Amino acid sequence: MAKAKTEEIVCEDRISVLPEDLLVTILDLLPTKDAVATMFLSKRWLSTWTMVTSLVYKDIDCESKKSVWCFLKKSMQLHKAPVINSLCMELGPQCPTTDDVDIGKLVAKAVDRLVIKLDINLLWSAGPSSLHRSLYSCETLVELTLSGQILVNIPSSYSAYLPSLRELELINVVYKDEDSLVSLLSSCPVLEILFVDRRKDDNVKKFNVKVPTLWDFWYTNYSSCSSSFDHTDRCLVVDAPALTNYRICDFSGDSRSIEDMPFLQDANIDVESYHPDDKFLTSFSSVLSLHLYLSDAMVNHCSTINFSRLIKLSICPCGPEWLEPLLRFLGNAPKLKEFLVDYVRIILLLFFLHFFCQKFLYKAEDIPYSWWNQQSPVPGCLSTELEIFEWREYGDRMEEEDFLTYILSNSMRLKTATISFRSDLEDQKLIIEELEVLPRVSTISHLLFK
């Protein structure tokens, strides 16, 4: 019997012989910790990771007592790449609050490395921390996100200049003063996208956004209105004539002053204020697509504005008296082709009223069917323009069916009407049969159900 021959198989390390640039490209696709760990593979890999251009450091596990800070500090000291394409630093509550944690030095090093995209999120328990002033004069920075316990502090004597910055996010940060905010925004000559999420104690009363190049602006302020808090001298001022997309969600009670936006294409408005401002709503009159939360405080104002370019309208009714002003609204939107009614918020409102305010209920008999027959003239957009209609969270209440009947019987060019039901609605099959026989003036219209 022949002796078995043992064949020795040698595994060839083909990756290590690849060019340095290609190895760095591969490591850029790995999590930063894994990329750094490759230094232990062999001498060939000892310093390769130091040339990666995408770095992410995050305190992901909030339950852990160990922070990524030490690893972040040490690896940044060893890092040698001449350019950093992307750097993300997120430090959580487990990060030490000693003087040894100097985030400013790391920011300064990133600026020296010509950083292009920088994301800093400080979620630690320490107070707001100032960043190195060189950040505000970084010529290579294109995207900047500042979030959490960060103090935006630009001294009046410092000449801030961010010539390449196109996207800026300011999330729950604190400002040294109003001048620091103005200096930051005025230092961005090509800024296109601005996302602002404010906190109540951010040291700014007049939030002034004057950016002529801005075309996309998101502004949120969830600080609830309070009678004990003085809002008389607090305001949002926006002067951005090039805006094409604007989303505002503001429950602060602050006043608002918005300059005209003649090129506005899409707007999403959800505001609550004790004193609605006519000019604020009028500044949106040129919009093409509008998503609007109709509160009692503003619905009547909307019905008096001429939305001459409006093509798509999406509304979320928030109060009990919105139907009649809505018809006036439609009468002032002569080019409207798409109309969406989203009942999600009205359902939540009714739920609240039912359990906590039983003296105030939105009853079906409040709007009898005869009321709809008396509404004349029919809004022009219904009779000549409307092509797409959608109703979300349809609840099969009497006034809902009456409103739907009004739409179907007056929309002469309607192509599709889509109805999606509330998830708790019973006998949907029977409801569909009833809706399918509603009178429709358009001979080409189709009813779709979800």
How is the biggest beta sheet arranged? 15 strands, parallel
Strand neighbour order, sheet with most strands = 1-2-3-5-7-9-11-13-15-16-17-18-19-20-21
The unreliable regions are: 1-10, 345-371
**Strand proportion:** 15-25%
Helix content: 10-25%
The class by helix and strand makeup works out as: alpha/beta
The end-to-end span amounts to 75 Å
Estimated radius of gyration: 29 Å
Number of helices: 13
Q: What's the mean pLDDT score?
A: 81
Instruction: Name the shape in a single word.
Output: elongated
Tell me what the structure shows:
24% of the residues lie in helices and 24% in strands. It is an alpha/beta fold. It has 13 helices and 21 strands.
Relevant terms:
21 strands, 450 residues, alpha/beta
Overview in brief:
24% of the residues lie in helices and 24% in strands. The protein contains 13 helices and 21 strands. The strands form three sheets. A 15-stranded parallel β-sheet has the order 1-2-3-5-7-9-11-13-15-16-17-18-19-20-21, sandwiched between helices. A three-stranded parallel β-sheet has the order 4-6-8. The protein has a three-stranded parallel β-sheet with strand order 10-12-14.
Q: How are the secondary structure elements laid out?
A:
Elements: H1 20-27, H2 32-37, E1 54-58, H3 69-78, E2 86-91, H4 103-112, E3 117-122, E4 129-130, E5 143-148, E6 150-152, E7 167-171, E8 174-175, H5 178-186, E9 193-197, E10 206-210, E11 216-221, E12 235-239, E13 245-250, E14 255-258, E15 266-271, H6 278-282, E16 289-294, H7 296-302, E17 312-317, H8 323-331, E18 338-342, H9 344-356, H10 369-373, H11 380-384, E19 388-394, H12 398-410, E20 416-421, H13 428-436, E21 446-449
